Structures are given as structure tokens and as C-alpha cells.
Amino acid sequence: MYSSGWPAGAAEPRHGRGRELAQALGCMHGAPSQLASLSLAHCSSLKDASVLSMIPALGLSLRVLDLSSCVALTNRTLQAICTYLTHLSVLRLAWCRELCDWGLRGLGEPVQGTQVWDPRGLGGRGGPWDQLPSCPSQVSVGVFKGKLRRNLRSKGFFPQSRPELEHQASGTKDACPEPQGPSLLTLRALQELDLTACSKLTDASLAKVLQFLQLRQLSLSLLPELTDNGLVAVARGCPSLEHLALSHCSRLSDKGWAQAASSWPRLQHLNLSSCSQLIEQTLDAIGQACRQLRVLDVATCPGINMAAVRRFQAQLPQVSCVQSRFVGGADLTLTL
Question: How far apart are CA 50 and CA 43, in angstroms?
Fold first, then answer.
């Protein structure tokens, strides 16, 4: 897995050593020719600059990249990965909390200062705020200022007719963000993706970029903005999942699982611990659709009781492990 001449530990640095390794790789004219796996996990001081200098040198042989808990990394690193490391099969970005929707989608970075404060608190209704672009992140500062100046002039002294306002509003829709660079979708060979605790991510990006027909393992745990709509979109985009972790996703409900479960017939390991809105009907839907399931974790799910767990186990006798501690609010490790 490592190239000749490289010590086995060189690809698994810890803490401060990761930065030195990144800088060393970045200074090389060519990467180790056989380097297939690189772990910089838990290098909390690792910055974008070090990674950006390293990534182009890694080459197309790299298949596994682990940047878990590199908490200072941002969308710049992700977009560099999507540009140069398109043959990756495993990408771990757990706890990279600075990753945002626009980075996953390959959009341009939002321009600072384009958001306009409405002093009347109308939330954008009426006046020139009615015509502000719906996607300001893609509007240049100069164009934005020009439009705002014209809107203020027209609304202050020469009110426009409603049809013209509607025409302008329809025109701003055409300015919605378009990809400016590579998105996560360029990593077509991905089989494992870990986005645990990337808490700034929402349905807006997850529903767009999680479309990997060959993806086998996915972790979206600790994403507070993941909703049923996002879950259904991910299910349709990643139908080959075998391992799925969604623990502590408090906005997921039975409604989402009723639609998503049928898309995952190959699912074998499922973690739903601490998903507070799930109920016993959720287990019924999963049991009917995911017939290959072997391991299920519903610990600390207050809406699921022990009777539902027993019914699920009877429905799928091949399930070898069901973690059900504190379901329904009780510590079942003590009562069973």
C-alpha cells in the first residue's frame, strides 16, 4: 500500500506531524508512486495551505484519504480533492465542521457583504428588498450595487408597475448558483464517505451531490439540518448502501423512512441511535424493505419501545445484533 522507501507509519501521522508530512509531500516533484492510502486523521492543526500544496503531488494512485477531525480544513481543501484525487474510493471528512453546502456543490464562495439588512424587519417583502437576488452568493459586488442603486431610485421616486417587478423577479431566478468548480460528484469511484458532524451541511447540498450508485458505506451522523426530504433524496441517489449511520439526526421521522427504506434492499448495518422522532412504525418499514439487515442500532430512541424491537427481531431473524439501550426512555440493558 505504501511506496518503497517509505516507513509504514509515514502515512498515518498524528497531531502536529501531519502538517510536516503534508508540507514534505507538497515539496516533492512527484508523490510516492504506489501510495494508495493516506491518513491525516486527528491532525487538528492542519490547515488548508498545507493540504493544498500536498494534494496535487499525491497522484491518481491514492484510493483512501482520511482527514477525520482535521477541524481547521475548509471547502478549499474539499474542492482540491475533487479536482486532483478523482480516483478516491474512500473519503473520510468526519468532524470537518467548516465544510459548507457550497463547497460540496462546487459553487463559488459567497461574496462577503452582499447580504442586505432590512431595517424595517419585513424579511424582504416590499421596497427594494423585494427585488434582491435570491442567490446573492453568485452576484458580483459591482453588479449587486448597481442593481440595488437602480432599485432604490425606482422605488423611492418612480414606482414601477407590478408586471415589471415580476419580470425582474423572474430574471433573478436565472442567476441562481451554477457550478463554478468540481463538486463531490466528480468522485465517481467513491465506495465509502464519512461526513459525520459536518454540521453546516444541509439538504441543499446532500440531496444534490450524494448520487453515487456504487457507494457502499455512508455516515451522516450528527447532521442537525438533515431532514426527511434529504433522506429520501440520498436513498434514491445511493441505492447500493450496505452500511448507513444516521445517529443523532433529530429531524428524521417515520415519514421519511416510509419513503426511503425501499431504496435500500442491500442495507446490512444501520445506526439510528438518538433519532428522537422515530417511532415503532419506522422499524416496520425498515423490516419490510431491508431484508438483508444484520445489525441495527436504535439506542436512546424514545419513540421506539421494546415490543417494537421484539417484533422487528421476529420479522428478521437473521439480524444478529440490535442495540436497544434506553429505547422508550428505559435502560434495557438492566431490564432484560
Answer: 12
